[in-house]
Write a structure and sequence with these properties.
There is one protein chain. By secondary structure, this protein is mainly α. It is about 75% helix and about 0% strand. The chain is built from eleven helices and no strands.
């Protein structure tokens, strides 16, 4: 139970770190996808439509207060599934042989959990970032339910599943693999047991692993994120009949390049955000294990 609690608390802290650092870049990316504009034009529109620099932080409050809870659930689900799968192995050699498959599966389950709990958060965030008339996040949430029903909170869930389920398994596998390389050299394990990510070397390794995991997991799923944003920013539920209908509409109206709109900002955002998320997660996890006197070996 203490292990799940540690995953829960650390995921909350790491998620908050990621949101604080990455929201302005996420706002630019969302505007690019919503309006099919270039980076410079999107930044101009954000400043003019939302009264200055504050526009880059528009809609941050809701994901900030919810991202912590969402990430805590995701990391708790991931950690518990990985421990359960590894616990089913009868020998150390079997655990090592099945480790990659277990990480992928546990990460994908965590990604599915993220979709179910995160879709309402995403749609409110997208509406606040792109639609000028929307005010407080709770008013936006109520407006969606009144106008579109409870299912309006799950608009765009299909592209979100394509974007998050299997790619989240890849995300966790890349991160864990990078950390495992260092653990074989017995460097980071000592700091984790002491409850710290102490030296610049260990911190840079965690940051690099998180950045690489974020970039790799995003490289092939940008079109699904574009379709998700377009579907969620549309207030008329009859406009986009399905994910494939939205795909075809975007290609017909703007060309195939529109499916990759925002790629630069996504990659630019993925590296620092995921570095911050995993640094926050690992630091907090070490402190929690130190508090509960849990040996991570």
């Amino acid at each position: 139970m203490q292990l799940i609690t540690c995953d829960f608390i650390s995921g909350c802290f790491g998620g908050g770190c990621g949101v604080l650092l990455g929201h302005p870049l996420d706002t630019i990316k969302t505007w690019q996808q919503f309006s099919n504009l270039r980076i410079r034009t999107s930044m101009y529109k954000i400043v003019t439509c939302h009264i200055g620099i504050r526009g880059f932080y528009r809609g941050m409050f809701f994901p900030l207060i919810t991202s912590g809870a969402l990430n805590s659930v995701v990391f708790a689900v991931y950690g518990q599934h990985l421990r359960n799968l590894q616990g089913l192995c009868k020998s150390r050699s079997m655990r090592e042989r099945e480790w990659r498959a277990h990480v992928m599966f546990a990460g994908s389950v965590a990604g599915a959990t993220q979709v179910m709990f995160g879709c309402p958060v995403e749609i409110v965030k997208v509406r606040l970032q792109t639609l000028q008339y929307v005010g407080h996040p709770w008013l936006c949430l109520r407006d969606i339910i009144v106008r579109e029903g409870i299912w309006g909170l799950y608009r765009g869930i299909t592209p979100m599943m394509w974007r998050d389920v299997l790619p989240y398994g890849v995300y966790m596998l890349v991160y864990e693999y990078m950390i495992a390389i260092e653990k074989r050299l017995h460097h980071i394990r000592q700091d984790q047991k002491a409850g710290t990510i102490g030296s610049p070397y260990e911190a840079s390794l965690v940051a690099t692993a998180g950045a690489l995991a974020g970039v790799v997991s995003w490289m092939f799923i940008v079109p699904f994120d574009v379709v998700k944003t377009v579907m969620q920013s549309e207030t008329d539920p009859t406009v986009h009949k399905s994910m494939m209908h939205c795909f075809r509409m975007l290609v017909r109206r703007y060309g195939w390049r529109s499916l990759f709109r925002g790629s630069i900002m996504i990659i630019a955002r993925a590296a620092p955000v995921n570095s911050a998320t995993f640094l926050g997660y690992e630091w907090c996890l070490g402190k929690c294990h130190q508090y509960f006197t849990i040996d991570r070996t």
